[in-house]
Amino acid sequence: MGLAMANNLIKAGYDLTVWNRSSDKCQPLVEAGAQAAASPKEVAEQCDIVLAMLADPAAALEVATGEAGIAAGMAQGKGYVDVSTVDAATAQEISRAIKSAGGEYLEAPVSGSKGPAEQGTLIFLTGGDRSLFDRAAPLLDVMGKRSFFLREVGNGAKMKLVVNMVMGNMMAAFAEGLTLAEKAGLSKQDVIDVVGLGAIAAPMFALKGPAMAQRKYATAFPLKHQQKDLRLALELGQEVQQPLPVAAAANELYLQAQSAGHGDADFSAVLEAVLQQ
Amino acid sequence: MGLAMANNLIKAGYDLTVWNRSSDKCQPLVEAGAQAAASPKEVAEQCDIVLAMLADPAAALEVATGEAGIAAGMAQGKGYVDVSTVDAATAQEISRAIKSAGGEYLEAPVSGSKGPAEQGTLIFLTGGDRSLFDRAAPLLDVMGKRSFFLREVGNGAKMKLVVNMVMGNMMAAFAEGLTLAEKAGLSKQDVIDVVGLGAIAAPMFALKGPAMAQRKYATAFPLKHQQKDLRLALELGQEVQQPLPVAAAANELYLQAQSAGHGDADFSAVLEAVLQQ
Amino acid sequence: MGLAMANNLIKAGYDLTVWNRSSDKCQPLVEAGAQAAASPKEVAEQCDIVLAMLADPAAALEVATGEAGIAAGMAQGKGYVDVSTVDAATAQEISRAIKSAGGEYLEAPVSGSKGPAEQGTLIFLTGGDRSLFDRAAPLLDVMGKRSFFLREVGNGAKMKLVVNMVMGNMMAAFAEGLTLAEKAGLSKQDVIDVVGLGAIAAPMFALKGPAMAQRKYATAFPLKHQQKDLRLALELGQEVQQPLPVAAAANELYLQAQSAGHGDADFSAVLEAVLQQ
Amino acid sequence: MGLAMANNLIKAGYDLTVWNRSSDKCQPLVEAGAQAAASPKEVAEQCDIVLAMLADPAAALEVATGEAGIAAGMAQGKGYVDVSTVDAATAQEISRAIKSAGGEYLEAPVSGSKGPAEQGTLIFLTGGDRSLFDRAAPLLDVMGKRSFFLREVGNGAKMKLVVNMVMGNMMAAFAEGLTLAEKAGLSKQDVIDVVGLGAIAAPMFALKGPAMAQRKYATAFPLKHQQKDLRLALELGQEVQQPLPVAAAANELYLQAQSAGHGDADFSAVLEAVLQQ
User: Fold this and answer.
1) What is the ipTM for the molecules in this complex?
2) Which residues form the 6-phosphogluconate dehydrogenase NADP-binding domain (chains A, B, C, D) (predicted)?
3) D55 pLDDT tier (thresholds 50, 70, 90)
4) Domain with A261 in it: what CATH number?
5) Cβ–Cβ contacts within 10 Å for residue A225, how many?
């Protein structure tokens, strides 16, 4: 995803300095006109705004606060925009490191996967320094179709959990609907068609429904990540003392699918858990 | 709804003979060119295809099979299309009465409410005689945007339950998302906006979300009807031995909203049950 | 069960007149001193108090209100005590028939199965005519260890549902505990032993636990009946507008066990549904 | 609880050396014949077997591994029996510290509260060094009625979670039963009486039922601790990939009771959440 996002910035005419743990991954960008740096620190030294897309909270923390990390190259007037998906606590830790070094910080996890990254239609859920958000807005507009500024650091992560919790519930509901329909003598494709015409039509149902009807689950968003997000949303509910009984029931269904070996399949494979019941 | 549907037929140039329990309700249609009949039986005697939109299964049964009912006026070559929402057992009972009288029968419950009825964008979920479906198709096309022929009588009712079960689950999931967001310090309107841009965007969320954010629930589909449909879907699950744990959890939430006095509010008032938890 | 109960009455010195659809089933009782009657009506004509133990609501209704049924032999001063398990509506229908015939009525479903019937340790959950309860008390005391008078007809049936709902939930909880323990590396027998020593020790766990640990489920109370009782308890909840989210989750688990083919096994086979998840 | 347990050991003739953060808490024991020590380390230096009862994992860790802690006074031939309730990870950390110092370790959380501690009827759920379990057995027998040796360190903690999960579920089921009964026109006391006579009779129902019927919840085991144990059991389920749908539903009910302000009441106050639904 990082590659697609960087490409869109180059195409839009921005000067890029790039770094990746595996330097050959930077090659296509260098060929397209970007400069290569030797470390995150060097990127920070040479740029006003640093963007990072990393795989998980541990990697995000290491790149931001490690020895030759971004914080080490930060200075007054510079800003760090982290578009990785990390938990609120990690985002706050990175924020402290960047701000101690004089820079500004914005967590900016994205909603959307590989396709939207290539088409420049991502959604950014940001929290942190408002002035950095304003400065980075033209860049975000190149890579995405909409950016939300949600105030404090951590709110981007929380918004992503909320939205993914709703998504996980919807997929579980859809899976129950398809299964009930089939057991009751209806066609799954008819359900998909009827759902697609009314008030509950959602792109996700149209996109994944036909493959689900054939019990095929090519992975776009792994089921184990959906289950993790449901679990984290329930933990957030615990933290703020909000019961979420429907999400709790859905979470058990995803856990069942995972324990049956579908963790690496697409999250639409929750259908397998419903079928197994 | 019946009035809006009949009006669309008149506008499309069809000759209508109309009847209503309260004869003054026919007045606007008569003024628009329809003929008034004295009973359902008389409508059946004068028309090739009879359409009915009734409030509940009891009314549908009475109008179809009562003393001066439609079956009494049926004959070979005539057909009865019942667009009311009735359960599968009632539809089968009406079917038997019509077919004993020599006619053809089509259950055709609609997906969509008053707005789509006026705009002619309803969806018909039909089951019964295929030849009647083919003959009635031009009429259904005037009143709706799509008709599904689902084979046996009862399948229209079942499809409606399946779709409404998915809808009820989605609304409960959305309500949990809005509540979790607010408790976690996010804005409900931001959730609505983010949801509206991605793979889970559904017209229902856009339509009802902003009012829900203000805890307003102007009734389009009463919560008690949504709860009833969830209950009936669970009973269908019982009948075909299909567990539906997420729907069961959602049903309890709607029941809670209903017992707290929100049964006549819009079904989006399930949010009140989540807030109360 | 009826045989064991009647035997206890004979042993206690009561004069019995007996009837059974299959007359050979009365033979042991006749040999023990009872008189045989040709119909339920004849039993009613010859006795002051008539007791009946029937398999299901349909049989109970037929024997009470059929052509040569008990109501036909009822008269002022006589009473009918029905110890069968029937729903509240059936009990009320039988009550009306008996009282129209001048008799008194008591529904008296039992808690307890074959063992307690033989040992005379059943529990009677009665509703109906208080004066009949008082007159029948010595008989109930012979067959059981305790009788409850719960006022209106229907309350016996409701109490039985409530108790069986709690029982079904407890067994599901126990099954989840055993499964979690085993997956976490503990021994199921250790769980059974620890549970048996503390505040949650219940005879049911001690009785069924060791067999469950070996996945053996010799039927004492069929799983399909437990699932039916949970379903009926949820319907009662619906009727009185009381959400029951834990019972709803347990019900789905029993439904899953049933759909996997364990309906005729003991209700402790709900463990198989947990293991399958 | 520690006081009651120590008293039982003194009464049984054991020589005790005691320490408490607040030294005045040791006074009654010193008056009864115990010697006072200045630190956990000093207790360890003077005794062969050290017992500790601490409030939470943080206190258990500090007392065991802190500067003047037990590990600092450990030596070959000595053993440490921690009867506090700590999580498996903390127990393992303490175990490593004690064993590095040459001692043996036994986690031994108790099932039972103040009453059983005074009466010497606790249940010990132990894991760790078998030889220490054998040596400590006479002491455990003085303080409790039964001790289980569950092999690895951590298993005592897991067993306690499993049992408390079953307990939390049972109490939630009982609360749903009491509420359904009352709404259906039955008496809560009758439910308590009927439950108390049959296969599901458990001391907990008899002990807490009558107070619950009056909505009184004098705290023996705080609701927030019950909710925490349900949450930890669900996390254990997550870890070993075991869905627990009934426990998940019960957990949401306790969370609801807690968010309504009943966290410090007895866990039987889950009834308030059911009543509020």
Assistant:
1) 0.93
2) 1-148
3) confident
4) 1.10.1040.10
5) 16
The answer to whether A244 contacts D252, with C-beta atoms less than 8 Å apart, is yes
- In a shared domain, residues A180 and A115: no
Write a three-state SS string for chain C. Answer: CHHHHHHHHHHCCCCCEECCCCHHHHHHHHHCCCEECCCHHHHHHHCCEEEECCCCHHHHHHHHHCCCCHHHHCCCCCEEEECCCCCHHHHHHHHHHHHHCCCEEEECCEECCHHHHHHCCEEEEEEECHHHHHHHHHHHHHHEEEEEECCCCCHHHHHHHHHHHHHHHHHHHHHHHHHHHHHCCCCHHHHHHHHCCCCCCCHHHHHHHHHHHCCCCCCCCEHHHHHHHHHHHHHHHHHCCCCCHHHHHHHHHHHHHHHHHHCCCEHHHHHHHHHHC
In the DSSP assignment, the letter for residue B222 is B
Spatial separation of the C-alpha atoms in residues D143 and D110, rounded to whole Å = 10
Report chain B residues whose CB lies below 8 A from the CB of C243. Answer: 252-253, 255-256, 259
Report CA Rg, chain A: 21
Which residue among B125, B173, B237 sits closest to A166, beta carbon to beta carbon? B173
From the list B78, B160, B188, B208, the catalytic residue is B160
Q: Scanning every residue of chain A, which has its alpha carbon at the shortest distance from the alpha carbon of D260?
A: A241
CA A46 from chain center: how many Å? 27
Whether residue D246 and residue C176 make contact (CB cut-off 8 A), yes or no, is yes
The reply to whether B148 and B165 lie within a common domain is no
Q: Tell me, what's the pLDDT at A138?
A: 97
Chain C residues near residue A249 by CB distance under 8 angstroms = 249
Q: What does the pLDDT read at residue B212?
A: 98
User: Alpha-carbon dihedral of residues D57, D238, A228, A189, nearest 10 degrees?
Assistant: -160
**Whole-number Å distance between alpha carbons of B152 and B148:** 12
Does the pLDDT value for residue C1 go beyond 90? no
Rounded to whole angstroms, the Cα distance separating C257 from C273 reads: 5
Q: Hey, which bits of chain A come out as E strands?
A: 17-18, 35-36, 49-52, 79-82, 104-107, 110-111, 122-128, 144-149
Structural domain of A202: 158-276
Q: Which residues pair with D168 in a beta bridge?
A: none
Same domain? C144 vs C29: yes
- Mean pLDDT in chain A? 96
Structural domain ending residue among the three candidates A152, A168, A194 = A152
Quick one: tokens of C239? 């009727």
Q: What is the pLDDT of residues D235-274, one digit of tens each?
A: 999 999 999 999 999 999 999 999 999 999 999 999 999 9
Could D248 and A252 be called an inter-chain contact, meaning their C-beta atoms sit closer than 8 Å? Answer: yes
Q: Which residues of B touch C244 (CB under 8 A)?
A: 252
Residues facing residue D144 across a β-bridge: D122
Residue of C238, C245, C255 lying closest to B243 (CB–CB): C255
Catalytic site positions of C: 160
Q: Look up the CATH number of the domain holding residue C112.
A: 3.40.50.720
Residue B159: which of A190, A197, A250 has the nearest Cβ? A190
Radius of gyration of the CA atoms of chain D, in A = 21
- How many domains are contained in chain D? 2
Give A176-219 pLDDT, tens digit per residue.
999 999 999 999 999 999 999 989 999 999 999 999 999 999 99
Which residues in chain C are closer than 8 Å to B251, comparing Cβ atoms?
248
Domain boundary among D130, D151, D172: D151
B134 and B180 both lie in a single domain = no
Q: Phi-psi bin for D102: left (phi > 0), alpha (psi -120 to 50), beta?
A: left
Angle formed by the axes of helices C155-183 and D155-183, to 10°?
170
Residue A181 and residue A141 share a domain: no
- Residue A249 has its nearest CB partner, among D238, D245, D258, at D245
Minimal CA separation from C203 to chain A, in Å: 30
CB contact (8 A) between residue D252 and residue B276: no
